[in-house]
Q: What sequence folds into this?
């Protein structure tokens, strides 16, 4: 998991680019070292051949063919010239002296450099060594070839080559491992920040990003984010305090007002007209108070305080009770209300709140569905989740309004004049959020199907 | 019912709400004492023999629940009705209903308050084990779970029977919608729709339809009352 995140992280990609660039440069430098080293070694050997050729040539010029033959034999006998090969041949390429018996067939030019494999083994060398030689033709048309065994030079170059290549591979390997380790550490820190953010979104502002006490830049980021969270928590607390106070301060006079109206309503000398007027006022006041308590209730659910009272409840049982309660209301508009699906769907939650949420959804389905229509409450287990769906066959909701309807006081154009205060779905959303349940809206064609995805209880 | 069982202690710091509380309880035949803070409530509660004590959750000196705890520790067994703003309804307050006490969320109707006080006060009355409940010509057989009027059976769903039984047991008293939700459906929240009215409407059609007189009466803005005429 962490490894996968490491390999896809941008830090790792940057590291790869850096390793690539660095690798190309290192390879270029190493290749240059290799090439110049092998060229230097070869030129040293060439210079030795040239000087030997020149000294033999001057011996020929000084003391003729016989003198040179004697010198060559002297050289062959001398162990310090063991790496050298010599051939002195007459114009018809018959060997006169030397440690190679046959004039190489490739050496046809009158003078110059050749490289060839010896036709026979040499005393101090490997089998048929690779030779490099300088050849020349004297005015008498005798031909001289002076060369050296360069097998060892090639071996040396190969060693350098191996060292260079393994060096490059090692560098790439180490850089790769180092970048994975460094990226992993970075990703680890970012993941802990991400995990805390997710926890905050799910359960409230009381969580903080853990510090490692290393006082590095990550700790500073975490510290600043924590300070920001402290600030947000304080502000939220203040806002809640203010709205609580407003709610409380408004409720007290409203309670008194309702008390007075009630007293007037039950008064002795009151005309029927006045009584009706006061009765209507009480009804309106109750509607205002209901909006108030719905708002406070939603706010209270959003504080997550009720999570403490969670226990295992059976969704199907609750759905059944809701359907039973709404049976009469459905009957009134001729709608068929049914509950189908599994017999048991256990979730962890608050029965009253889940009941309230499902009740709101069923209420909506009956109110906004088709008269003499059908409302189906279904319980299913999909991919290990407990899913409860409420479907009607009414006009439905346009897809672009799906998100809007959960906002407080939001009402669809065509339902503006039906009873309700636009808080029902906000409450459903708050309850779903408290339970970590996902809300999904689907086109039931015709109608609306709303699904609540609950996670099964943790055992 | 003895005299002491009509005595109520009201603990409320807001003078006007207190005045209205005292007045509506007095007009329902209760003798009401008023305490305006926690310590006053403790001394009065310990001295008097009250049928019910109502306590505002937010008192100037002590938390209403703490007052209730202290009274219990002092050996006062009278049932308590905590009056609480919705924002103050936490687990401790919700737990009251399980323990035989009750709570009421502000703002409330005074009829609702009186109904709750009546229900709490009745706890101390002796409960007679009966198998058949009768109101007027309505008879409820609690063993076979059947209802009939003038000997003619009324077909009811189990939940409808439960609702009718609760109304009959509270004959002559006002039963609020919240009380019905609480006792018939075991739901502890206040309904935000008229769903209870629709449900009671159906029960009423079954019970009162084509009868000589209605038994179930609507109390405007509050709930229902089941009573025989006369």
A:
């Amino acid at each position: 998991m962490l490894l996968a995140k490491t390999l896809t992280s941008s830090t790792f990609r940057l590291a790869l680019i850096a390793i690539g660039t660095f690798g190309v440069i290192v390879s270029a430098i190493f290749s240059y070292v290799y090439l110049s080293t092998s060229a230097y070694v070869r030129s040293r050997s060439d210079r030795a051949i040239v000087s030997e050729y020149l000294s033999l040539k001057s011996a020929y010029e000084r003391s003729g063919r016989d003198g040179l033959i004697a010198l060559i034999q002297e050289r062959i006998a001398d162990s310090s010239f063991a790496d050298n090969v010599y051939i002195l041949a007459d114009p018809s390429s018959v060997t006169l002296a030397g440690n190679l018996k046959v004039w190489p067939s490739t050496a046809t030019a009158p003078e110059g450099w050749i490289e060839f494999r010896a036709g026979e083994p040499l005393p101090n060398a490997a089998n048929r060594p690779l030779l490099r030689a300088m050849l020349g033709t004297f005015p008498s048309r005798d031909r001289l070839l002076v060369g050296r065994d360069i097998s060892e030079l090639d071996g040396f170059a190969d060693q350098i080559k191996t060292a260079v290549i393994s060096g490059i591979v090692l560098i790439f390997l180490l850089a790769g491992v180092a970048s994975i380790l460094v990226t992993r550490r970075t990703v680890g820190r970012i993941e802990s920040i991400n995990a805390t953010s997710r926890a905050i979104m799910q359960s409230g502002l009381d969580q903080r990003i853990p510090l490692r006490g290393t006082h590095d830049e990550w700790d500073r980021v975490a510290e600043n984010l924590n300070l920001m969270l402290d600030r947000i928590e304080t502000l939220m607390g203040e806002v809640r305090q203010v709205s609580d106070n407003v709610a409380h301060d408004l409720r007290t006079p409203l309670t008194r007002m309702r008390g007075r109206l009630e007293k007037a309503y039950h008064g002795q000398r009151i005309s029927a007209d006045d009584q009706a007027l006061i009765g209507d006022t009480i009804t309106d006041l109750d509607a205002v108070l209901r909006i108030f308590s719905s708002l406070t209730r939603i706010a209270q659910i959003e504080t997550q305080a009720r999570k403490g009272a969670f226990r295992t409840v059976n969704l199907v049982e609750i759905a059944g009770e809701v359907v039973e309660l709404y049976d009469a209301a459905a009957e009134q508009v001729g709608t068929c209300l049914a509950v189908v699906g599994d017999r048991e769907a256990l979730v962890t939650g608050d029965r009253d709140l889940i009941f309230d949420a499902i009740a709101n959804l069923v209420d909506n389905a009956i109110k906004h569905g088709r008269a003499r229509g059908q409302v189906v409450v279904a319980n299913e287990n999909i991919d290990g989740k407990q899913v409860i769906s409420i479907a009607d066959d009414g006009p439905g909701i346009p897809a672009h309004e799906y998100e809007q309807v959960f906002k407080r006081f939001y009402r669809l154009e065509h339902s503006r004049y039906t009873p309700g205060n636009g808080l029902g779905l906000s409450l459903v959303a708050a309850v779903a959020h408290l339970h970590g349940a996902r809300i999904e809206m689907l086109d039931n064609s015709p109608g609306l199907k709303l699904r609540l995805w609950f996670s099964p209880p943790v055992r | 019912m003895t005299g002491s069982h009509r005595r109520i202690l009201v603990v409320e710091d807001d003078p006007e709400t207190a005045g209205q509380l005292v007045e509506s309880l007095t007009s329902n035949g209760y003798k009401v004492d008023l305490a305006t803070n926690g310590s006053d409530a403790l001394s009065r509660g310990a001295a008097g023999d009250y049928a019910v004590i109502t306590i505002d959750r937010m008192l100037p000196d002590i938390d209403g629940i703490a007052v209730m705890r202290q009274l219990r520790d002092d050996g006062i067994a009278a049932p308590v009705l905590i009056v609480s703003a919705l924002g103050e309804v936490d687990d401790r307050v919700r737990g009251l209903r399980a323990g035989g006490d009750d709570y009421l969320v502000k703002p409330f109707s005074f009829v609702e308050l009186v109904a709750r006080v009546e229900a709490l006060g009745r706890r101390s009355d002796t409960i007679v084990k009966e198998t058949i409940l009768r109101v007027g010509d309505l008879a409820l057989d609690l063993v076979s779970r059947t209802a009939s009027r003038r000997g003619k059976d009324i077909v009811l769903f189990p939940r409808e029977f439960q609702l009718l039984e609760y109304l009959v047991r509270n004959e002559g008293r006002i039963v609020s919608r919240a009380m019905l939700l609480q006792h018939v459906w075991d739901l502890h929240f206040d309904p935000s729709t008229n769903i209870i009215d629709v449900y009671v409407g159906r029960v009423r059609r079954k019970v009162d339809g084509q009868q000589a007189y209605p038994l179930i009466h609507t109390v405007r803005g509050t709930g229902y009352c089941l009573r025989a005429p006369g």
Remarks:
- The helical segments of chain A are 2-8, 10-77, 151-203, 217-265, 272-302, 315-332, 351-368, 424-434.
- Chain A touches chain B through 47 residues (CB under 8 Å).
- Chain A has a mean pLDDT of 85.
- Residues 217-302 of chain A form one domain.
